[in-house]
Write a structure and sequence with these properties.
The protein is of the alpha+beta class. It has one domain: Alpha-Beta Plaits (2-Layer Sandwich). It is built from four helices and four strands; from the N terminus they run αβαββααβ. β2 and β3 form a beta hairpin. α2 runs antiparallel to α4.
Length: 106
């Protein structure tokens, strides 16, 4: 492969959003994230979309998501189910959720 060609793996996008629920909103946030997970797994280019609960912090949820390309991620972010989630979840959170881009080491 020429040095300027982008391999499929290099084009992939991996993210780790973290959500912290307001006291009393843990169950509602859990349900919203499960719904988002179910819908997002059907989006084109979705490689991984799994929500985890933090075993040490019951108010915290971590999303592990992978996309085949930046274009697939952008299309996902433009989906109604994502827009509705992002708008609706704000009142359930202690602070705005963070999104950390992550890169596999190998």
């Amino acid at each position: 492969m020429p040095h300027n060609a982008v391999s499929h793996e290099e084009a992939q996008v991996w993210l780790m959003p973290v959500f912290t629920a307001r006291a009393g909103s843990e169950a509602a946030l859990h349900d919203a994230l499960v719904g988002l997970q179910s819908a997002s797994r059907k989006d084109a280019g979705c490689l991984e979309y799994t929500v985890f609960s933090d075993g040490q912090r019951p108010d915290t949820f971590i999303l592990f998501e992978g996309w085949a390309s930046h274009e697939d991620l952008q299309a996902h972010n433009d989906e109604d189910h994502v827009k509705v989630f992002v708008e609706g979840v704000q009142s359930l959170l202690v602070e705005p959720f963070s999104v950390t881009p992550i890169t596999p080491l190998a």
